[in-house]
Amino acid sequence: IVNLTEQTLVAYQEDQPVFASYASTGVTDYETPEGTHVVWDKRISERMVADTVSDDPDFYNLPGVPFVCYFTDNWVGTHGTYWHNDYGRQRSHGCVNVTPQAARWLWRWTTPPGSLDELYIRSTNCYTATRIVVRY
Q1: Which residues contact 103 (CB under 8 A, 6 or more apart)?
Q2: Which residues 6+ apart lie within 8 Å of 18 measured at CB?
Q3: DSSP per residue over 6-34, as a string?
Q4: Closest of 84, 122, 123, 81 to residue 104, by C-alpha
Q5: Is the dihedral of CA 77, 80, 86, 92 positive or negative?
Q6: Burial class of residue 2 in the structure, from the number of CB atoms within 10 Å of its CB (0-12 exposed, 13-18 middle, 19+ buried)
Q7: Does residue 128 register a pLDDT over 80?
Q8: Which residue, 93, 106, 99, is CA-closest to 132?
Q9: Rounded distance, CA 96 to CA 42, Å?
């Protein structure tokens, strides 16, 4: 569960919390989408580039973003963040930023399962994939 008010992420195994972390979610105009989502694509590392021009103040080009778990069809996900240490505050362009260590834990814990030598893993069954709930 990603709590947008508290800027936290808590992982549950059935009804028991098994992991918790501060997070940084989307700022105004780049809100993290509320709702129940499914992890459908996981990547060990990803280059993330804004769809704006390089002189736009919102432009970013971030190589090596670690342990990405995409949960929307427009590429919003959880991932490690090395360019800031400001967790607990809104800061992203829609994704759920966590520490690289927290992102690794989430990547290994979520389904679909994968190994660290796979470039990406795609879910073939949305009924068994990990659910991400984003709410206020």
Answers
A1: 66, 67, 68, 69, 78, 79, 80, 81
A2: 11, 12, 109
A3: TTEEEEEETTEEEEEEE-B-B-TTSPPPP
A4: 81
A5: negative
A6: buried
A7: no
A8: 106
A9: 14
Q: What are the CA-CA distances from residue 50 to residues 7, 38, 53, 55, 81 (Å)?
A: 23, 23, 8, 11, 16
**135, 4 in Cβ contact below 8 A?**
yes
Q: What are phi and psi of 108, to 5 degrees?
A: -75, -30
Res. 124 pLDDT band, cuts 50 70 90: confident
Q: How far is CA 14 from the centre of its chain?
A: 20
Query: Which of 136, 87, 78, 82 lies closest to 107, judged by CA?
Result: 78
Q: Do the Cβ atoms of 21 and 51 come closer than 8 Å?
A: no
Task: Please tell me the distance from the alpha carbon of residue 60 to that of residue 117, in angstroms, as a whole number.
Answer: 27
| Averaged confidence pLDDT in the chain | 93
pTM of model > 0.90: yes
pLDDT, tens digit (0-9, with 9 covering 90-100), for 82-112: 999 999 999 999 999 999 999 999 999 999 8
